[in-house]
Amino acid sequence: MEELRVIEIKKEVLYRNNAEAEALRAEMRARHTFLLNIMSSPGSGKTTALIRTIAELGGEYRAGVLEADIESEVDARKIAALGVKTVQLHTGGMCHLDAAMTKEGLSGLNWPDLDIVFLENIGNLVCPAEFDTGAAKSVMLLSVPEGDDKPLKYPLMFSEVDAVLISKIDCLSMFDFDAGALRERVKKLNPAAAVFELSAKTGEGFEAWMRWLRAELRRWNGEAAR
Amino acid sequence: MHELPLIEEILSVSLDCAGRHGAREIKRINLLAGNLSGIIPKWASLFFRMIARDTIAAEAELVFQTGTAAVLCRRCSQSSEISVNPPVFACAHCGSKDVYLETGREFQIQSIEFT
């Protein structure tokens, strides 16, 4: 009878991606480039919020954008029209981005010359949360029309992010959305997450979000300077 | 929970490891899935069977050990197990909500058995 051999591994299934993500994060920290991973369902307003965020940053920081979609250049064109360096990643049917794909996209941006890179992840509330892209911070959007029960249905996404942006608050009067209930549900899963209520259309609530983002950017560069 | 990329990674890691050790056939892959990992063994095994076809892992059995979910309390510095349906992030000793998850979300390859 053939001898059975046992090899111990004792590592996370995604340890190869995690190692790659950590290496990328360390490299970006050393070069003072802040990668922000932005996730949400399709149609929550990521691109619109991103356009306003870039506009509000003004000339203060050199920004670049990585657009990830399964197909089309729709989003990349909107951003490029602002004169911002943009790379469109087509994921070939994959429902999420991993560190390797993020690194490949970044190389198209010449990222060491940039202060901040926005990674607009694929519209999907499930898979992207599982894969570390090497980002400095990650945020998610939840739009008013989607409803305030999403933290109950998609706990991992809400648990993993550094901030939740409640978007499309200009539509609050048209939907039964309880922002207080949403905040409570997020707090139960992720007490450390910042929660913002904003409208990319009207600009309402953007000041607090921009304050948070600038503080994170300063902190990122401060850590690297040590 | 979307298992397929994770299952593909299990197959890839297993085949790499088996290749380095000159394995003929992978018999068993021992996994640890935390209570909050969202992994459903039945589906994970089914996907694995599909993608492992025509490899030396084609007949491999996936064996799942369940890991408990536990939090470490920042207030009293003690660990406590928490319930997961639904998850309640609070210390069982002092009731504080200032806790962080120590275990529960892991999904690990523990070992590979082969001939």
Written overview of the protein:
The complex is a heterodimer of chains A (226) and B (115). Chain A is an alpha/beta fold. Chain A is built from 8 helices and 8 strands; from the N terminus they run E-H-E-H-E-H-E-H-E-E-H-H-E-H-E-H. A 7-stranded parallel beta sheet of chain A has the order 4-3-5-2-6-7-8, sandwiched between helices. In chain A, helix 3 links the parallel strand 3 (63-69) and strand 4. The mean pLDDT of chain A is 92. Chain B is α+β, with helices and mostly antiparallel strands and 115 residues long. Chain B has one domain: hypothetical protein PF0899 fold (2-Layer Sandwich), CATH 3.30.2320.80. Helix content of chain B is 24%, strand content 31%. Chain B contains 2 helices and 6 strands, in the order H-E-H-E-E-E-E-E. Chain B has helices spanning 4-20, 41-51, and strands at 26-34, 61-67, 70-73, 79-81, 99-103, 107-114. In chain B, the strands form 2 sheets. A 3-stranded mixed beta sheet of chain B has the order 2-1-6, with helices on one face. In chain B, strands 4-3-5 form a 3-stranded antiparallel beta sheet, with no helix packed on it. In chain B, strand 3 (70-73) and strand 4 (79-81) form a beta hairpin. The longest helix of chain B has 17 residues, at 4-20. Chain B starts with a helix and ends with a strand. The model of chain B has no long low-confidence stretch (mean pLDDT 92). The A-B interface holds A 2-14, 16-17, 94-96, 98, 126-127, 130-131, 152, 155-156, 188-189, 191 and B 1-2, 5-6, 9-10, 13, 17, 21, 23-24, 27, 31, 38, 86-89, 97-98, 106-115. Strand 1 of chain A pairs antiparallel with strand 6 (107-114) of chain B.
